[in-house]
Amino acid sequence: MPASEESLFVVWNGYQRRAEVLAPRLNARVVWLPNRWRSRYLRPLDYLRKLVETYRVVRDYRPRFLVLQSPPPFGALAAMALRVPYVVDAHNASLQGFWAKVPLTRLIARRAVAVVAHNDEAKAIADARFPGSVVTVLRDPLDLELCAQRAAARDPNRVLIVCSFAADEPIALIHDLIAARSDLEFVITARVEKLAPTWRERFERLPNLRLPGFLPTARYNELLATSGAAVVLTERSATQPSGACEALASDTPLVVSRTSLTESLFGGWAQLVEHDVVSIAAAIDRARGSRLDLSEERAAWTRAFETELEELRSRLAGLSASTVRSPS
Q1: Is 10 exposed, middle or buried (0-12, 13-18, 19+ CB in 10 A)?
Q2: Torsion sign (Cα): 28, 31, 32, 33
Q3: CATH class as words, domain 151-293
Q4: CB distance 227 to 267 below 8 Å
Q5: Which CATH number fits domain 7-141+303-316: 3.40.50.20, 3.40.1390.30, 2.60.40.420, 3.40.50.2000?
Q6: Tell me: the pLDDT tens digits for 273-284?
Q7: For the whole model, what pTM was predicted?
Q8: Phi and psi (nearest 5°) for 135?
Q9: Where in the chain is the domain with CATH 3.40.50.2000?
Q10: CA distance readout (Å), 246 to 7, 73, 306
C-alpha cells in the first residue's frame, strides 16, 4: 500500500492546543488517544492500549511521516516497527525529570528525523540529554481563532488561571492567591479530579472560584478573550507556557512566572512575577486595568515561527514511509 501524502500527529491525550494548531501546518491529521482509566496504577495498561492503537492507525494510514507528542514517547515504537519516519514533539516534561531518564527515551530521540524543542533553552537541554539526535526549535503557532476574538469586551473582575494541575504548577500558591483575593472571580478549566482529594476539596470550597472543567475550544477562547487577565505559573525552567501564547494571540493582559525564558519571550508586555501572593495579586491589578494591542508582537512571533517551521519542513522534504533514520 503506498504512503499517504498526508502525515499523522499522534497525541496520547484528549486535547492539546499546540497539536491542534500545528498539525494543519504540517499537513497532518491529529489522532487523539485519551486515557481510558484515571487511576495512575492503571497507566501502564493505558499506555499498552495506546501503543496498539497507534500501531493500527499507522499501519492502516501509512503516513509519509509521524509526529508524536512526548511525553510519553512510546508511540515511536509503532513507527519503528512499521519503518515510518517520525518526529518527536518534545514538551518540556520529556526533557527534564523522569521522562528524560527513561533509557528508551534516548533511543527514540536518536532515531527520530528530528526532536522538536519549543524554544532555545529547551533545545540546549535536549542537545545535552539526547546526544546524537537532531534537535530543532519550533515555538507554538498562534491560534487564528483566538486572534479573531481579541477585540471582545473584558470583565476586569474575572481572572482566568491557565493551568492543568500539572507537576510544575504551584498548586498551593494558586489556592492561596484565590483565597486572598475574594474581590475577584477566578476561573480554572482544568479537571479538578486530577488533584489529590484533600486539595480538590480545598479548591471546591473557595467561593470565588469557578471550576467548569474542560471547555470546547470555542467556549474557552471566548472565556480568555473576555477575562480581565490571565495568570500562568510554572516552577520549571525553560518552559514556554501555552497560556502565555494564548494571551499573546488574544491581546489578553498576562501575569506569568519570571524566568529567563519568559522574560525573553514575553517580558516586553507581560507582568513577570516571583512566586508570592502579594506580588502576583499586585501584578493582576496592574494587568486587568490595561488594554493591549499586541499586533507587532504577534507579527514578530509569527515571522520567527515561519522561519523555524521552514527549517523543520526542509528536514522532512523527500521522506518516504519506507525509510527511517538509522541510529548514530
Answers
A1: buried
A2: negative
A3: alpha beta
A4: no
A5: 3.40.50.2000
A6: 999 999 999 999
A7: 0.90
A8: -115, 130
A9: 7-141+303-316, 151-293
A10: 26, 26, 18
- Could you read off the pLDDT of 194-220 as tens digits, one per residue? 899 999 999 999 999 999 999 998 899
Enter the C-alpha cell of residue 318: 523527500
Q: Note whether 7 and 17 are within 8 A (CB).
A: no
* Mean pLDDT, rounded, for 47-52: 96
Taking the C-alpha atoms of residue 322 and residue 30, their distance in angstroms, rounded to an integer, is: 21
Distance (Å, whole) CA 58 – CA 37: 23
The answer to whether residues 79 and 86 touch, using CB atoms and an 8 Å cutoff, is yes
| pLDDT, tens digit, 9 for 90 and up, residues 158-203 | 999 999 999 899 999 999 999 999 999 999 999 998 899 999 999 9
pLDDT-derived band at 5, boundaries 50, 70, 90? low
Cis bond before residue 327 (omega within 30° of 0): no
Paired with 307 in beta bridges are none
First-residue to last-residue Cα distance in the chain: 29
Q: How far apart are CA 192 and CA 15, in angstroms?
A: 16
Taking CA atoms, 47 is separated from 12, 77, 253, 313, in Å, by 8, 12, 38, 29
pLDDT of residue 4: 60
User: Three cell numbers at 114?
Assistant: 528530528
